[in-house]
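Please predict the structure of the following assembly.
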Amino acid sequence: MIHLKDIRLTFNKGTPLETSALNGVNLQVPNGQFLTVIGSNGAGKSTSLNVIAGIYKPDAGNVLIDSSDVTSWSVHQRARLLSRVFQDPKMGTCEDLTILENFALALGRTNGRGMRLAISDSVREQAKNRLKLLDLGLDKRLDDRVGLLSGGQRQAVSLLMATSGNTRVLLLDEHTAALDPKTASFVMDLTRRIVDELQLTVVMVTHSMAQALQFGHRTVMFHRGNIIFDVTGEDRSKLTVPDLLALFKRDQGEELSDDALLLG
Amino acid sequence: MSLYELLGTLEVGFVFGLVALGAFLSFRILDFPDMTVEGSFPLGAAVFAVLATAGVNPWLATLCGTAAGFVAGYITASLNVRFKILHIMAGILVAISLYSLNLRIMGGPNKPLLNVDTVFSSFEGFGIPGIYVTPVFLGIAAIAAKLALDLFLATGVGLSMRAAGANPAMASANGIDVGRMRLLGVGIANALTGMAGALFAQLFGAADAYMGIGVIIVGLASVIVGTSLFPSRTLFLASLACLAGALLYRLAVALALNADFLGLYASDVQLVTAILVAITLVGQSTGAGRHIKRRLKK
């Protein structure tokens, strides 16, 4: 479960560049829910994700994960409870290390690390089994450096790494945005399969309204640092992108003017 | 070059091999340009000299010099991690303060080691001719340090350290405390340097407050020369290339100083070093060196 309680965050406080990024965001994501988050640039969607991950500390408010208050926890401490996939495929993996070593790092997130050798037979076996899911033949390339893989392959590996170990919360930060359409849909299908199988609690930030409505159980939209609507269940399944635009116009009294949001 | 000179070059080359391993760890693995070594090298020597002349066992005194190096590196990394001082600046601050500290430790600018037992004297009388004892022992020490470093980097902690250097955002997202890895890694790098300083003092029979000058560039030169000349796809080969680089670098310097037609003095060693490193770097970025560099990157 993820719970954001009245989160406020201002960037560059006290300077001419002061921008208020989050103005009292309240959000509760129950266990096993797949939440999709949309919003235009600067609306606060990625900032909220970074607040959950611990990259940004809120000026006010609390962050709860699985009923522990993690507001003061650092990024690496929160890694015991959550995992994330970045937008940039280069960010989620370490290109100088082999596929196997990357897996060992991800498994160390919940299994602990010590002075024993990082690569054991059990790590090798787990990595192999996970990689078979992809059907890309990567399970036979365990000792290749990740830098040799394509962006799509790296993103798929990042996703597998993030869902190895026993964290229950998965944060996806526009994780298909940097991929070509075919690879993006491959990674999205993989995401759905893994999330269904493991019953994870997911927050997925996306730039595409269509993707936001197509995947998951619930959609929230950010605008100017607030959540402006929140749909779930039957209301959501009937909703189309034009409906969403109309809703936005009605509530905000302005047209949505972010091309990426409309075209995605 | 005579046999004596060659053996002397090997001895110094192996000692600086330890410095090169430290530079490899901080510069290459952790991506932390660490200037502390300019101070931790003479620190290791000073600690050894003071303890050994006071009658402490030379092995224990060398160990203390190593530990002192670790502490110096740890302080540099703390200034960076805890107080957000730029890494280069943090290293320079510690190195500068160590200069004064070394003078205090030794009670003067140098400390001769007259009639003091060294770690080399433990091996005398084993049937190996005297002049070979020191280079053989130092060679074994350098290779042992290399293997220990390889082994460490293959452990859970070592792998985390590599990730912390290569991709800090990914490392912390995977639960690695990047700051702690820097503290430990820069500490270990300077422990190796402190050990090199202690051994160097025993080799030359004195510790000197000025002996740290240029150590940083010697360490870096060894790493750059080594990894440029030898393909180093794996860590095992990369750390081996650092040792080979240290030897080659010392050999190149010895040859340059020996070549009478060049008319160089021993005091020109820093200039020769800088020119050698510059040539290697230029070679890397132009023509011949480029494909080597690309191969290293892949």
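The domain at 2-81+167-263 of chain A is CATH 3.40.50.300 (Rossmann fold). Residues 152 and 180 of chain A are 8 Å apart (CA to CA).
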